[in-house]
Amino acid sequence: MTDASPAAPTPSLPPLATQADQLIRLGVHDIAGISAEELRAFAEDAGAGHRGALLAVHPERAPASALAPLLRHDGKPGFVVTDMTDVDDFAPGAVELPDAPLYLVTGVDRGDHMANWSPEEALPALAEEDRTPLLLTEGIHWVLQQPEVLERGRCFMTIGSRLRKPNGALDARTPAIWISNGTGRDGRERRNAPKVGWCWWGNRHTWLGFASATGRRGAAAS
Hints:
About 25% of the residues lie in helices and about 20% in strands. By secondary structure, it is α+β, with helices and mostly antiparallel strands. It has one domain (about 15-215). A hairpin with a 2-residue loop joins strand 2 and strand 3. The longest helix has 12 residues, at about 35-45. The radius of gyration is 16 Å and the shape is globular.
């Protein structure tokens, strides 16, 4: 395995109030059945002590299939690959989410240093670093707030989301977010569009890191 060449530092996330306004502008609150007032109030209550955190909506309230088209890159909307019709069935794997419609994700990192690792290799390494992999929906939320974190040659996997088969085994596919080349079934018109797709559990890709976080938390108890 080889590390990627040094990347420019990722800029800090916007304040939570700004993130809330962005989600409202995109209509994510409507998708989730949450009022704009509730979203802004959560951001205001959490904002003082959690600078740099990512504001996320629980995937049961805002699934990946509804969020992906809101992504933008080079003026083009995001999409889910045609052979991932079950994208919303990818649920939190070894990741515990707050029992709340809104929560914060802290210490988000793109995982460039794990480029050319397989998911099978990356997951235990993240655990050793006391980090957990991002869910697909969390990764989409991150790009909605900071489109610049998705750049050609430096995209990322979100292996916190896994699909369990009826027999209990985990599906070998793992979700990722990258930029389409406009080839194959994507279609030429989608070149440079943000793309939600999948990779095999045991495969390596030089242009995919492993996005992760240090923690997640819901609203503080009143």
